[in-house]
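Minutes, project huddle
Topic: does the predicted pose make sense with flavin mononucleotide bound?
PN asked that the exact inputs be recorded in the minutes so nobody has to dig through chat later. Recorded below.
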Amino acid sequence: MTKSAQPIFPHGPKKVEGYHEYLADQLQPVGSLLNPEEYKQNQDPPALFKPLTIRGVEFPNRAWVAPMCQYSSEDGKASDHHLVHLGSMAMRGWGSIMVEATAVVPEGRITPEDMGLWEDAQIAPLKRVVDYVHGLRGIIGIQLAHAGRKASTPAPWTLRQVIEDEGYQGGTVVGEENGGWPNNVQAPSAISFNEGKFPNPVEASAEYIENLKKAFLEAVERCEKIGFDFIEIHGAHGYLLHEFVDPISNKRTDSYGGSLENRLRLPLELAQLIREKWDKPLFYRLSATDWLEEDLGPEKSANGDYAWWGIEQTTILTQKLADLGVDLIDVSSGGNDLRQKVKVGPSYQLPFAEHVKQHVKNILVGSVGIITEPEQANDIIEQGKSDVVFLAREVLRNIDFPLKAALELGAAVSPAVQYERAWTRMLVKRDHVKEAAHKHGLTEVQGEEGKKIKGETVTVNGNGNSNTIGKRGPPPVVHSSVP
Ligand SMILES: Cc1cc2nc3c(=O)[nH]c(=O)nc-3n(C[C@H](O)[C@H](O)[C@H](O)COP(=O)(O)O)c2cc1C
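Predicted holo structure (tokens), as shared on screen:
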């Protein structure tokens, strides 16, 4: 008996060219809308899944990851931790990923374990992360930062551990013996954030400020080499640039202190210098308010002076940043004064973003702060209150938020090719627009997912390919050192 010729499949896999090893091509960005001709529910998609293009960079959706310090670097370098942490976000369909606050000078770190970009040796480890995210067709930027008077302090868990273990109640300044720089903590004025606990900063000299501008520009050059898609300047949370704009922490008598114009000088100079050098998207994160009304009365005193930093000055700063060509304002709040009374709750910072959006027309606006639900996120954008939403803690709890949101809002977006089989419920082709999956009577056990409840062998889509699932071998051997 002669056998017929084998039915050879005449194609190889699509791979990411130029990547240092085999990496499957994602075919289209993870989290981007699937073809609306096929998935008719995408013809009028939820606002959260409408792509956004800024200076030629296409963000596939509006659910963006906020910057989150990991305190997991040695000498400011990205590590395996960052590859997994940020890489797994790229596998989950976030519209944008942002590397944590990254110091442009060593003394601009919050903790000795912060990420940094003050020297060329820090380029390659970050590029590895960025190359991987780009290999997955993801968008990734970085937040450039200086911690100001909150520098040289310990990571939260380092502090908590000694508080829990030893009932420690002392100061929280990291000394030189643990990699800190207690005598080189820089601020606009020599005013501690928390006298007796936090560092006693020195007043940054005019020379320090000039060198800082150079350091920012050098970091921007490194961002260029790494291939980041965007840069965010960190001007929030009581760190250096917030300290400069805020009359609470800035008591300088030179051209960087006193009047509002002077207090805004440093962030505006930086934004301008960076804008001239960097032609990709540029964002600025600010704290819209110190939340001090209850303690100090109105932001502007009766005599016309500003008593603390609030939404009026925020709006003025945003307008000036917009006029300099900053593309997006990321509206956060608080962090510069211990007396702050933050009114926390779902979307608690949205009113500030909305205010800025209403008053400054030539800038995109991002909102952040307890945005955890798909409908909540979608409504914010659909109602024009901001253009994108940033999520932080929800990313850590629920990394699949974008795809789950698509499912809940009734859109069909591209899952990572390797994870497709987990998203069959979302990938149902529907005629209806914005109909949530549950309205179609789909349940967890339908489709392919239903078949794997008992058996270990399933037939996928009736195409003859048999896949074994459920059988698991022993755990892999992990070699703790590279041979
Ligand atoms: C672990 C962690 C680290 C953070 N690190 C940064 C940071 O590097 N830069 C920054 O601007 N905000 C940082 N934040 C604040 C978040 O970006 C975000 O503004 C805040 O958590 C509120 O959003 P959420 O309610 O979605 O968590 C951090 C928050 C968390 C939870």
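Observations noted during the meeting:
- DSSP finds 14 helices and 15 strands in the chain.
- The pocket of flavin mononucleotide is lined by residues 66-69, 100-101, 143, 234, 236-237, 285, 332, 368-371, 391-394 (CB under 6 Å).
No decisions taken; revisit at the next huddle.
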